[in-house]
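Reopening this ticket.

The earlier resolution said the output was attached, but the attachment link was broken on my side. Pasting everything inline this time so it's all in one place.
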Amino acid sequence: MQKLQLWATILIITLSFACGNGQKSTEATDTTSVKAKDPQHMAHKTILFFGDSLTAGYGLDDPASEAFPAVIQEKLDSLKLPYKVINGGLSGETSAGGLSRVDWLLRQKIDVFILELGANDGLRGLPITETEKNLQAIIDKVKAKYPDAKLVLTGMMVPPNMGSDYATAFKAVFPKLAKKNNMLLVPFLLQNVAGNRDLNQSDGIHPTAKGAKIVAENVWGILKGAL
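Inline output:
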């Protein structure tokens, strides 16, 4: 009888220990799962803004915080979205110049590519066919290296003094390329900013810090659909 009671006691202790371990294992798994879903524990994805002086933040007191890509980084951070913005803007850049340097920036993994080029081509009156060809070549390079990357194109316009035919043909390049390459399109990057003295620097071309915030909103309205 005593042996029977002893074995019963051992059996109860063994079962209790096994159940305790099972519960602890489940709790550990649940904790790991929560951490994996927490944005602070997720690997950051990369958004590359590839453009000219508008992207670079030309003329701003602090481009690192006032250029529109930096404003978008603040938006991402405030929403706790795991994205890191890279500003690949270069003042004076043309579509041909962008084509020559894009490979260097594509050495790092890109998850979202935002193409903002062509404005300097238009201001110089360069052949629209060449601008379109260069922009397509840039897009092709991104697709070839990162086929899963989301692509966004920012539309641009040129001043009326370039001639109505040129201005119309130039504007049409961007929706055409966006449709051809299944890209999201920001119809006009400088919407609600261009032509407004209060939102532009003395050159009448580059946005002030206040204007850059509006540009950021123009881009964010489209970009958020790719995240």
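Reporter confirms the inline version is readable. The two ends are 70 Å apart (CA to CA). Residues 1-41 have pLDDT under 50 and may be disordered.
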